[in-house]
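Working notes for the structural subgroup meeting. M.R. asked for a predicted model of this chain before we commit to crystallization trials. I am recording the input and output together here so anyone reviewing the notebook later can reproduce the run.

Input as submitted:
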Amino acid sequence: MNELSTIITENTGLAVETQQKILISLIVVIVLSLFRLMVLRLVWRQTHNVKTRYQWKRTLSFITPFIGFVFIGAVWLPVFEEFGTFLGLFTAGIAIALKDPLTNLAGWFFILFRKPFSVGDRVQIGPNTGDIIDVRPFQFTMLEIGNWVEADQSTGRIIHLPNGKVFSEPQANYSSGFEYIWNEIKVNITFESNWEKAKTILEDIIKKHSADVEISAKKEILEASKNYMIYYKHLTPIVYTDVKEFGVRLTVRYLCNPRQRRGSENEIWQKTLRAFNADANINFAYPTTRFYKSGESADF
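Returned structure, recorded in token form:
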């Protein structure tokens, strides 16, 4: 070993002490890599749950580099102490040159500890909306919803956003705290229709649809009130009446899970169409435009 060290010193100019530090650093990296690989294999054998696997993988991806940094830093610290002033100036220069990456790193710590959102949450950040599928030290990733696709369904696109966005953009979380949203469906009928009967039909449909949701929502609000000032006086669905230039508007307002919004609208609309179609006194209204030529009678 001494002969090998001597040969390396003669050919590279590295001192024996420096060679030992490099060797120890390599051993630390190899051991931690093997440890991470063994733990992941064990987890893969024990569970097929995708979320559990992801959490273990991400946790180990954060912990093992940190442990390696601590051990390798301890090995090389005496060398760094000799260049304290230089490192101070160098670090200041790096901080200025890498402002955005450092901001993203600070955003990562904010996401980890403050938890404005977590993996699996549905959020809107600025103009971007989607489900969080990954959080890394410099960026987080979401599976986009909306955009050209209606009713908050997935577009299939993956969006990568810098973590620094949490300091500059408002974040709306659909999942954290209170896991329901208020949704509205606008139903327009003609002035000649029996609007009172139409309203009764809609109220019956929405009450049956929201019976289980109301019970769950009350429990959610009670739990969310431990962390947030969330208060609703009424959670029951309601149908509001309004008059527009083309007829009577009945607005159905009800609670639903954000991921089931389109499905709930589909179910409610199907029942509404069947019920209105069976009643000759209820007709849908819609804006129309009529044209006539000069000299012809206009029959309005």
